[in-house]
Amino acid sequence: MTVGGYGYLKNKKLGCWRLNWGIGLCLAVICMAQSAAACRQALVLAVDVSASVSTREYELQRDGIVAALRDPEVVDWIVAPTGSEVEIFIFEFGNRTYQWYWVNWTKITSEAELAAVADTVAAVQRNRESQSTGLGDALLAGADALASRRCAKKTIDVSGDGKNNVGLRPQDVQARLRADGITVNGLVIAQQDIAELSAYFHANVIVGSESFVETAGGFEDYARAMKRKLLRELVPKFAGVME
Fold first, then answer.
1. CB contact at 8 A, 196 and 188
2. Are 231 and 73 in contact (CB under 8 A)?
3. 3.40.50.410, 3.30.70.100, 3.40.50.11540, 3.30.530.20: CATH of 23-234
4. Domain segments of the chain: what residues?
5. Buried b (16+ CB within 10 A) or exposed e, 25-62
6. What would the pLDDT profile of 155-166 be if each residue is shown by its tens digit?
């Protein structure tokens, strides 16, 4: 597990051995199928830390993610289906050139590994305040991070308390997201004008036939909303969560 990193989340170019046609090709296909089956979901959490987010609100987001990852229901749905793991990547974003990662790709195979991720997030301190909200560039960074994963499902969770106001528009990267088979879900944080911001996320941010927008009535409600959002993604045919 690695913490901290500046700039876009670019992928390394991966080299590969040239396989003899026949047996080598068959082995490659089998290995790819097994790899995809072993990872049922690659999950990116993208957290808005632009200037509209105060230090207290930053901490509420961080602590809300920690609480959700430690919640027994969430733990059960991430860890219990053994042999089909979830991989997690978490980063914060602001303007178009600022993405700072909290947790590098971590495959969760036990409660201890998930607890370690939660502990890592709990120790995160605000790196710096970004003045703008670059939703489009954050989604592109999430797509770049997901490009190296071989999972049955790829998801970006993007939290925000405002609309894009710098760099790429979120709708500008939707074609790339769809081509890569990525689902984008939103978590809208607002106490006023929540319907307007939710409509903006529905129209411009989320991607995929099963995508959705979860809402938090302010940062104090973030932990509840994050838990519900994770369960909506992890639980097959999610029909609701008892509060």
1. no
2. yes
3. 3.40.50.410
4. 23-234
5. eeeeeeeeeeeeebbbbbbbbbbbbbebbeeebbebbb
6. 999 999 999 999
Given this model, what pLDDT does residue 193 score? 87
Amino acid identity of 243?
Answer: E
Inter-CA distances, 148 with 17, 145, 165, Å: 17, 7, 29
Strands 85-93 and 99-108: antiparallel
The CA-atom distances, in angstroms, between 149 and each of 11, 62, 239 are: 10, 25, 28
Residues β-bridged to residue 50: 130
At residue 97, what is the residue type?
A: T
Q: How many Å apart are CA 75 and CA 59, to the nearest integer?
A: 22
* CB-count burial class (<10 Å; 0-12, 13-18, 19+) for 155: buried
* Amino acid type, 134: G
Query: pLDDT tens digits, residue range 201-221?
Result: 999 999 999 999 999 999 999
How many angstroms separate the most distant Cα atoms in the chain?
62
